[in-house]
Amino acid sequence: MTGRYAELHTRSITDPAGFWGDAAREIDWIKPWDSVLDSSNPPFHRWFTGGLLNTCHNAVDRHVDAGRGDQAAIIYDSPVTDTVQTITYSELRDQTARFAGALRGLGVAKGDRVILYMPMIPQAVVAMLACARLGAIHSVVFGGFAPHELATRINDSKPKAIVTASCGVEGKKVLPYKPMLDAAIEQSDHKPDHVVVFQRPQVTAELVGPRDVDWAAAAAAAEPAECVPVAATDPLYILYTSGTTGQPKGVVRDNGGHAVALKWTMTNMYDIKPGEVFWAASDVGWVVGHSYICYAPLLHGCTTIVFEGKPVGTPDPGTFWRVIEQHKVSALFTAPTAFRAIKREDPKAELVKKYDLSSLRTLFLAGERSDPDTLHWAEDNLKVPVIDHWWQTETGWAISGNPMGIERFKVKYGSATKPLPGWDVRCLDISNNEVNRGDIGAISVKLPLPPGTLMTLWNADQRFVKSYMTDYPGYYQTGDAGFIDDDGYVYIMARTDDIINVAGHRLSTGGMEEVLSGHPDVAECAVIGVADELKGQVPLGFLVLKNGVERDHAVIVKEVVQRVRDEIGPVAAFKLAIVVDRLPKTRSGKILRGTMQKIADSESYKMPATIDDPLILSEISEALQGIGYAKPGMV
Ligand code: COA
Ligand code: AMP
């Protein structure tokens, strides 16, 4: 049966220019585009070439001009500081224009990079929008990354200025940010001209002029800045994400395609109307935070929630329900791990019953595979549709999902439903041919990608081509394996590279291996992701020590755990490592990480035909049993 979805999806693939050209009418353009889609230089496809716009104008000013000035743009809800604050669209315009003026006064202009190292406070969103207002390119770095990771991003993006706050508040911990930022700048070759600090009442950061500038003073003294026209194809932001090595990939997003695509998703994927309250319980440091805390809800004229807290412990597992009731949230978007955390502390959902959740229409989950147990628990207790949708930092919005504003498909547990309009999703074998329906393969997207997706990697066009566009010519390689069933439902099963997903956070095991191998006693190492009831996966390291090392293994393990925390950050959640005599390898020397993961998770596995010495697998199994993994009997 052909429904509205089939019609829209077909049109988006056969006539992308017509489809997205229509969608682009929802955005204010200073100058319309010459061409909707420019495919003259594949695989670097460009959307809305020749068009001029300003993303901040579309997210903020236009709503004030259209009479939404008194509507809440941001509700800041911070149980950790006991604060609830509403910022209207008029106030957001004024604050953003002033802060943009302050940045301009510090020399920031169109095309300059600005790193934002911010906790979940409204100033993080204001800073993002202020950069967009000036045509400067922001790069938000998640607060849970250590100075070393921040330094890598400073060196790669070479920011003119860095914006930070005096501290973050993580549950009951107050974390001063400025010392971490100072350490990062110390470690990096590039030095920003200025550091702008938003002083929070919990901690006062020490400012050393003339480099360091106080946010409040600079904003008060600044003339408000107007929106600067930028090309649709000018970068709006760089967001670094884990690749296969310790060098993160700087995903570059444009202005025009991004605004068009994100606005479109609010109606079609999320079924949200302007004026409604949309809550993405994530962090501005992740892509979900960029797209669905900051840009999409504001482009659509919604109220967005900036929540500074955790699903549990701030103060209890009822905090999500309290926020929904208090602010009349229409849609909640979070990662399954948040629900696993709540379910673990309140399995019978006693706290759900204490709140009025009648405003909530839909729960959206993404960031990692949704386990059916969690999905059922959420459905049974919230009594709203629970929609799994699949996407990546690179894509900026969902590749597949249940398009609530187009046609609502039956939920199949374990599937992120169907490819959204714009996405020509195929499941391929290694020869670039489509596999049969139901067979596992590399989930790939036929080019061109729709608007709003990555344009390239910052300063790394070749890495972009090699990472995503080479192994499957003509397609974007998602790095995810899975299958498509007879009804066209997409199932994402696992990554095909060494990326793991810890509490919905994307991490590179390769990056952790680089840190472990830097330890003076470690000759060789491997890091895998093992199943974890709460976080989905957690990293586990195997260490082979250098000949002659006789130090206590427990001490070495403690040291490598600390190293990962110091160099990557607490967000890596690296707490487990064991010392083994040897690592299992193929005859050509490739470490059999996949087999080790199956052994650790007590899954059945086939002995790899190319294994060099099968005995090593028993040694690995025994070592894992020593820390409670690899139930006996599976080898
Ligand atoms: N700044 C500084 N440190 C941070 C941080 C931040 N912004 N975010 C996390 N950390 C720290 C945590 O405090 C923790 O430190 P610890 O080792 O000292 O305890 C460590 O990084 C690991 O964090 P996390 O993996 O998030 O574990 P957690 O126990 O603090 O919380 C969950 C677990 C499931 C409650 C939490 O991860 C969560 O709510 N996740 C779902 C929402 C989400 O963020 N999704 C992301 C994409 S949609
Ligand atoms: P990130 O770039 O941090 O958004 O992580 C993207 C990766 O998370 C994807 O490549 C998938 O491996 C995984 N992922 C995201 N959403 C889903 C989902 N709904 N189902 C399964 N895996 C997902």
How does this structure look, described?
InterPro entries: ACAS_N (IPR032387), AMP-bd_C (IPR025110), AMP-bd_C_sf (IPR045851), AMP-binding_CS (IPR020845), AMP-dep_synth/lig_dom (IPR000873), ANL_N_sf (IPR042099). Pfam families: ACAS_N (PF16177), AMP-binding (PF00501), AMP-binding_C (PF13193). GO terms for molecular function: propionate-CoA ligase activity. It comes from Skermanella stibiiresistens SB22. Belongs to the ATP-dependent AMP-binding enzyme family. It is globular and about 70 Å long. With about 625 residues, it is of the alpha/beta class. Helix content is about 30%, strand content about 25%. The chain has 2 domains: about 5-310 and about 390-425, ANL, N-terminal domain (Rossmann fold), CATH 3.40.50; about 505-625, 2-Layer Sandwich (GMP Synthetase, Chain A, domain 3), CATH 3.30.300. The longest helix has 17 residues, at about 90-105. Helix 5 (about 120-135) links the parallel strand 6 and strand 7. It is built from 18 helices and 32 strands. Helix 3 packs across helix 5 (about 120-135), helix 3 (about 55-70) packs parallel to helix 10 (about 285-300) and helix 6 (about 145-155) packs across helix 7 (about 180-185). The model has no long low-confidence stretch (mean pLDDT about 95). The strands form 10 sheets. A 7-stranded mixed β-sheet has the order 5-4-17-16-18-19-20, sandwiched between helices. Bound molecules: coenzyme A and adenosine monophosphate. The site of coenzyme A has 28 residues, from strand 9 and helix 12. Adenosine monophosphate binds near residues 388, 393, 416, 492 and 495.
